[in-house]
Amino acid sequence: MALVATAGLLSAFLVNDTVCLMLTPLVVLLVKSADLPPLPYLLGLCMASNAGSAATFTGNPQNMIIGVASKLDYGRFLLFMALPAILSMVIVYGVVVWRFRKQLPARSIHPDGPMPPVDRRLLTICSIAVVGILIAFFIGLPMSWSTFVGAAAVMLVSGVETEEQVKKIDFGLLLFFACLFIVVHGVNREGWAESMRTLFAPVMHGGPIRETFGFTALTLVASNLFSNVPYVMLARVWVPQLTQPELGWQVLALASTLAGNLTLIGSVANLIVFEGAKDTVKVTFWQYLRVGVPATIFSLVVGLGVLLLERAFFA
């Protein structure tokens, strides 16, 4: 529960991919020292990060694209998306605990070894930077420049060697991500994306509720075929044509984000976690799917239901 809450909350504001990159080594260390089964904790980490990241425009890359394309207010988006994201985290927790109920120990957990040292000066600098960046988001300053200025300030003030940090960049992951965009560009150029939209058109016509669930079905399938970020690059031109465009942006954000929990390759965050933990545990596509399917379906149904109720009462 603590891991799901921490990963989800941090991912809402600090981008799920970076949270997974930061927490995976810590989770691996903790499960080893406490002699725990690693798979449920690693699944909880990546799935909660995906679920929590749906809450804001800065939770994940696809929401950033939606934020720029929609020009919606950061705070208003958070007000509508916070509850669906929180309930999705609760569902992730419930599904993981239920699925691994026989493997999770009933005893108290007491990791061995001393607490790791904390650089309080660096922690203070980073905390101030994060608070400043969040204030910038809420008052409507550009997300990209706000983050860039905050990061540059941390690098200047902290005294950390920039060259050493650049060496830690995972260029293989960036190449993988770039290749996804190339593939999706080809798909779009050949007209396959529009053909897929036409295929789902019959279930998207007939009012906001039917349109919402039809658009969600399209997003769920396409996000796992092409990955959610490249898909959102395609889908952003369709949303203004929907009956309620603001609802359409919210549905696209929620569905494309939670779709990342369906399969092992549905989200880059999933790949980051299990690539980082490959020396500790090996997870197959089907092992992940047994947890991903119920977590994704339940959270999507509940999340969309809450979103539609919020729109009905508060929009």
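Second entry:
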Amino acid sequence: MEKSEFIQIRRFIVKLGKMLHKYGTPAFRLEAHLSEVASYLGVHASFISTPTSLTYVIWSDKHEDEYTHAARVQPGDIDLGSLSRTDELVNKLLSGELSLSQADAELSAIDELPPFYHPVLEFFAFGLSTGSFAIVMGSSFDDAFAAGAIGLVMYLIYYFSTKSKRVALMLEPAVALIAGICACAISAFVDPAINIRLVVLSSIIIFIPGLALTIGLAELSSRNLVSGTARVMDALMQLFKLYFGAFLGIAIGFWLFSEVAMTPTKPTPFWAIIAAVFILCSALVVIFKLRLKHAPWAIICGILGYFGTYWASKYLEFGLGTFVGAFAVGVYANLFTRLAHAPASIVLMQGLIVLVPGSKTYIGLNSFVSGQDFMQTEHIGQETFVIFMSLVAGLLFANVIVPTKKAL
């Protein structure tokens, strides 16, 4: 292999790995995908991916050339649209439609694309997702409207954090603090019927790291021990920061506006829950930056995951219904890969987000710290643990029954 060719190949692989990491690709998927690309390009390679670092070792057939590259990176945000475009680009390279130099140029173009959805659309997506989540939790319309209104405020803080590093550093406690104060204000001046703690949880649900915890456990189950441990610990720290912010915000809100006795209202009917699941999945299309051609597939996956778990929970106890939902989502995602020739992650994330017990983790932490339950739950800690294990097991079984044809 010529020296110049080797340099071109390793530059492309390094750039591809950094972009996939930036778009929130789990370690085991990223490493497997890069290995496939390296093999096609005629080099040998070894990769180590963690939430904050990437290490590459690339060498030619007889070790005439060997290259080591280590990079400090920030934990990636989920951007399924850019992930899909990157996968299509790699497919064209592997099929011979693009040369390596052309693929390298287009890879840079993908990274420079403007946001697919306008901030105004993301603003309303935050409000719809937080309000619909409150209904999915079995709460009332009062709680849903309050959570939706606060969710709009949460987006403004999130948007500001993308422009300011100082705000980004304190994002989790800041959003939870402001959500707590806003919920207390709504209870005091607008609607005393709301469940303040449930409204706060619903309004910050986008920031609850349930999905990160699940991905971390999946990485651990695939023996990516360093990445999995780091991701789980990072998710736990995010959860602690959110809980502290909410705890402090509610305390300040009660001090400012005085605590109002809640007037319980009836939970929403089942038809409202069905509508809320659809609205939640549709809003997540915008939040996860999916391309429109993949949106129907992703929405169906989210609905399948929720109602698969709902149906199975009638026959299986203690959170084991999640295993059925995760298995259904995993099989569906792998079938999607075969039919649409796109990464399973595109629809898998949508299905997992309605299954992960991020909210129950938060409720359990609240119960442990304050000794108070703001929802009727029993054995919340054990059930959360079982749900996490059921999620990982369901995905493992799905990959055995219907193997995926793509590493991503």
